[in-house]
Design goal:
155 residues; mainly alpha; 6 helices
């Protein structure tokens, strides 16, 4: 009897291991993102830092000698992201809101400043590997921070 139980247990564990190996073979290994900073109740991921650094590098593509060494740049961009997150959180905590209409106006101003249409702006962002939604979220954060700063100065 013990021999039968042992065989059944061995068979069940072997099947479990085999099905786990099958599932692993079907799913390609994906690197996990990691947290690089915590700002208030928000986290900044390595992927967000990498994207922000890539944006800075693309802005200075024509003049890379104006940039600090990469480790310094990474630290400066991370500090900027932390400050932005803290200011956005503070703005939201104090009741500052940004409507979709406010963002639409900001998008229009950006397009006009660059002498292009909003559709051309969308295409330009896609060429820079930035989604239009991410761009709008970035504008929302910038407007929130600007309104917070105005409130502080007026107060």
């Amino acid at each position: 009897m013990n021999r039968i139980v042992f065989c059944l247990c061995f068979l069940v564990s072997a099947l479990g291991a085999w099905s786990g190996l099958q599932a692993q073979a079907l799913m390609p290994a994906q690197p996990l993102d990691r947290i690089v900073a915590v700002a208030d109740d928000d986290v900044i991921l390595q992927s967000e830092l990498d994207t922000a650094v890539a944006n800075v590098l693309s802005q200075y593509r024509a003049n890379p000698q104006q940039l600090p060494p990469r480790d310094v740049l990474d630290r400066q961009v991370l500090e900027s992201l932390i400050m932005l997150r803290l200011q956005v959180a503070r703005a939201k905590d104090t009741g500052i809101r940004v409507s979709d209409a406010d963002i639409d106006q900001a998008v229009q101003r950006v397009a006009e400043h660059n002498k292009i249409t909003v559709d051309q702006l969308r295409g330009s962002l896609a060429g820079e590997h930035m989604s239009f939604e991410d761009f709008r979220n970035h504008l929302r954060d910038q407007i929130l921070v600007q309104r917070l700063q105005q409130r502080v100065v007026q107060g």
